[in-house]
Protein 1
Amino acid sequence: LIATARSNKVAVVLGFQDFSQLKRDYGDKEAAVIMSTVGNVFSGQVVGETAKTLSERFGKILQKRESVSINRSDTSTSISTQLDSLIPASKISTLSQGMFVGAVTDNFGETIDQKIFHAQIVVDNDAVQKETAAYQPIPEISSFLDAEGNDTMEQQIQANYRQIKQDIVELVENELIRIENDPELKYLLDNNE
């Protein structure tokens, strides 16, 4: 579905609290297919196997290592390189609120140089509070309270149900009468046409 939707320019957004839920609900094989098919990945703090899987997905980077050895007569320095996780699982498992890691994909002609990210969502609390203060209450279209303040929602739902059922019965009866009174329709009905 994901690949088919993408080829038809339909975006699919999947949300999971943890990869273990994906495996539980779809099984190991289907979960692996889903995880390898999605292109863009955004994650907050996750632990365990999910953090490890994400770290592996983000890849490795060549890091310089410098070590210094000191003994009584001499000091030596050696420099080496080593492949380390670009975003280690330990970093993913200790992300603070508002911190995210992820990977994005690009398109032909729209290449993205920085595909892997570790970033913070900056929230303007003052702007959010101003916006929230300007909210208008949702108008109450109908109330289910009677004159004494009792909730009559269930009774009104049942009354609506009975009314709709009665309307359908009357509609069917009227159509049957109309068919009986129209020779052309009666002929079609009698001959199953």
Note: Residues 19 and 169 are 51 Å apart (CA to CA).
Protein 2
Amino acid sequence: MADPARTFARAFEQLRPGGLIAVTEMDFLPRYLPEDPGVGRPGLEARLHAATNTQPPHEWTGQLRAAGFSLEERRPVEIRLDRTEAGPSLNAYAQGALAKLRSHATDVLEADDLAALDVLLDETRPHGVAHRDDLRVRTTRTTWIARRP
């Protein structure tokens, strides 16, 4: 949201008394790789996330209250999906997300990690994300539920 205060104030105006608003925020992009992806040092994806996730997590409690809402609940949710649950597009989605992170990692990751990531993103390589069957979706979301008094 470009202007959260305005957005929440408008939502407050649109809701009837007693109405609810739910805001769900992705904490950061999901993780997909196993701890040891078989290329480079173990922990590559954790280092990639640590290097590229430079923004603090969103916290909407204060802004919802400032707009006049009363907070009913703040609920973090862990999402863990294996290959069967994630569906057939898992490899393509992981490839795209890791490529996006790679584009921001050039100046913040060690050269060996960048090289390993390049191997994982290469669709012609056997360890490439496009061909792996050991990918899993791991992420968290937080939902704020607030009521207009």
Note: The CA atoms of residues 96 and 143 lie 25 Å apart.
